[in-house]
């Protein structure tokens, strides 16, 4: 009698594990539903759609430039840009600081793609980009209370991005598969040439 009860409980536990332990991401369920695309939270807060598009582009440019300066792989930069876009389809540019969120996204993406960079390095790179874009002479970032406050903002923004995305930060890049196939092809071509 007791053995059958135990077997039944074990079966129920295994059944629940199968039901709740799997996160399934594919190209069909990673695309945002149309009701989230328009109107966006930023538009609901009164931001002009053209201004929002410019902020989205600027954020992605900052992530790309910072990734190059941080010597991150392209996949990490693309992941940071996807996280940035996903975040701002659920939060408003009016209520969230775009530059701080971009810093958080590139920091988080570097961890996801196993090329981690320190927050200090990310902040220094963004400071450098800002100086170059404004045409100012380049000075190093002073480690004062403003730096500490900015670092804490980036840490909080990283947590906010993770929370808003439900810790679902897997990004399936279409170009990653192409790159793998191309490198496999080049490796096979190189081997066949060596054999000839």
UniProtKB/TrEMBL annotation:
- GO MF terms held by the record: cyclin-dependent protein serine/threonine kinase regulator activity
Residues in domain Cyclin-like?
Answer: 61-163
Q: Does the keyword Nuclease apply?
A: no
The alphabetical list of record keywords is:
Cyclin
Entry's Pfam families? Cyclin_N
UniProt xrefs under InterPro entries: Cyclin-like_dom, Cyclin-like_sf, Cyclin/Ssn8, Cyclin_N
Stretch forming the signal peptide: none
Q: Does the keyword Metal-binding apply?
A: no
GO biological process terms held by the UniProt record: regulation of transcription by RNA polymerase II
Query: What domain of life is recorded for the organism?
Result: Eukaryota
Q: Which family does it belong to?
A: Belongs to the cyclin family.
Q: What is this protein called?
A: Cyclin-L1
Give the species this sequence originates from. Answer: Araneus ventricosus
The organism's taxonomy opens as: Eukaryota, Metazoa, Ecdysozoa, Arthropoda, Chelicerata
């Amino acid at each position: 009698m007791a053995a059958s009860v135990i077997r039944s409980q074990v079966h129920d536990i295994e059944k629940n594990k199968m039901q709740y332990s799997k996160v399934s991401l594919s190209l069909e369920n990673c695309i945002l539903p149309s009701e989230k695309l328009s109107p966006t939270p930023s538009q609901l807060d009164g931001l002009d759609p053209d201004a929002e598009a410019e902020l989205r582009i600027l954020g992605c440019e900052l992530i790309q430039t910072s990734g190059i300066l941080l010597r991150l792989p392209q996949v990490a930069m693309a992941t940071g840009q996807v996280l940035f876009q996903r975040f701002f389809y659920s939060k408003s540019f009016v209520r969230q600081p775009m530059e701080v969120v971009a810093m958080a996204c590139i920091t988080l993406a570097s961890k996801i793609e196993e090329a981690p960079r320190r927050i200090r390095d990310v902040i220094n790179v963004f400071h450098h980009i800002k100086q170059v874009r404004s045409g100012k002479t380049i000075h190093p970032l002073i480690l004062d209370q403003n730096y500490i406050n900015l670092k804490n903002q980036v840490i909080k923004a990283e947590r906010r991005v993770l929370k808003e995305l439900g810790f679902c930060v897997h990004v399936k890049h279409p170009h990653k598969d192409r790159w793998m196939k191309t490198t496999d092809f080049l490796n096979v071509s190189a081997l066949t040439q060596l054999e000839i």
